[in-house]
Write a structure and sequence with these properties.
alpha/beta; Muramoyl-pentapeptide Carboxypeptidase, domain 1; Aminopeptidase; seven-stranded mixed sheet; 14 helices
């Protein structure tokens, strides 16, 4: 953790990058108030938790931000190469109709395949390495090629193929294992699980009642299930007990101009559905680059269902009937994402009985 008052080469490296990115007037070896403000601005732009401190997540993001496309050759390696240059490459490939997968700034096997396909189409050496010749070809073509939104079209086609029924869907529930809310989120996950199973959904939980897997273990588990959705359940907390309300997060980065199309759509539906059914304050949906949202292959959302530090929210969450309302709203939100417009219903009105009838009709 790098914090105000710290000095040294590490601070110089950080401020050099922040200076190149335009967040600070000049590099320095001292973590001043100005540096803290620059770090906050960087965190805000990158979809990170805004603290003004340089924790491990912020440190990794700053390291990734140092790279621009063409600074280095990009190739499949172990560990995988990460950086803004990778995200820029992926974005350019998507614009030209190639499919590197999610624009996540990580050079994985799908990115390598897309680079090979691009290299083949432009007549440069087909090796899956984005070096000087490939970058030059990308730059030349990106000036002339304009596209619609291939990722949106692919997502739409995928949803149409799967259809509106829930019976063939796979949903991973990720209840927080934070000590003060672990029991509450696990209970909520079970309430959601029971309702989904009754509708024919295959449901997996990332943890048991007494286990506490790491974030990487939960991400790996979700990726191995071929999930259609990952829903992470949490409750926020704050030093000010007046903080309250519901917020939903999906993968997105303003810096790269990308976001998860399906993740954003589902986050919006969930937020509206739960706000319509409860008296929780609407803290809206937000794009974030947290690893759980970024590295999970399936569309993923994180729900902060109130604040455990808020007497009002805490009392609501302690009520089993309120948790049932949340569970039913979430299940309805899942179905609404797969319903066509003509079959959808007004937010907050669709019931589980309606879902069962819809499944029978399908």
């Amino acid at each position: 953790m790098i914090k105000p008052g710290d000095h040294g080469d590490v601070v110089t490296d950080v401020t050099n990058t922040l200076h190149r990115l335009g967040f600070i007037a000049k590099a320095t070896d001292s973590f001043s108030d100005e540096v803290g403000q620059a770090v906050r601005a960087f965190q805000q732009e990158r979809g990170l938790t805004v603290t003004g401190l340089i924790d491990e997540t912020t440190w990794l993001a700053i390291n990734e931000a140092r790279w621009k496309l063409g600074d280095r050759s990009l190739r499949l390696s172990s560990p995988l190469m990460r950086g803004d240059d990778v995200a820029a490459l992926q974005s350019r490939l998507v614009e030209m109709g190639f499919n590197p997968g999610r624009v996540d700034g990580i050079y994985g096997s799908q990115s390598e395949v897309a680079v090979k396909e691009f290299q083949k189409s432009v007549g440069v050496k087909i090796d899956g390495i984005c070096g000087a010749a490939t970058v030059i070809a990308l730059m030349r073509l990106s000036r002339t090629v304009t596209g619609g939104a291939p990722t949106i079209l692919r997502d739409q086609l995928s949803r149409e193929k799967r259809g509106p029924a829930l019976a063939d869907k796979v949903v991973v529930l990720d209840p927080s294992s934070r000590a003060d809310i672990a029991e509450l989120t696990f209970d909520l996950a079970h309430r959601i699980e029971g309702r989904l199973i009754a509708l024919g959904v295959s449901v997996f939980l990332t943890r048991g009642s007494r286990t506490s897997p790491t974030e990487n273990e939960r991400i790996s588990f979700a990726n191995n299930t071929a999930a259609d959705l990952l829903i992470s359940l949490s409750v926020d907390r704050h030093t000010n007990d007046a903080a309250n309300g519901l917020a939903t997060y999906f993968y997105g980065s303003e810096a790269h101009g990308i976001h998860s199309i399906v993740g954003e759509k589902f986050a919006t539906i969930v937020q509206r559905e739960l706000i319509a059914r409860t008296d929780l304050l609407n803290n809206r949906t937000h794009a974030k680059t947290w690893d759980l949202l970024r590295l999970t292959k399936a569309p993923a959302v994180l729900l902060e269902i109130g604040y455990i530090s808020s007497p009002k929210d805490s009392a609501r969450l302690a009520d089993p009937n309120f948790r049932d309302v949340i569970a039913e709203g979430l299940v309805v939100a899942i179905q609404r994402m797969y319903l066509s417009a003509e079959k959808d219903a007004k937010t907050g009105t669709l019931r589980l009985e309606d879902l069962r009838k819809a499944i029978i009709r399908e």
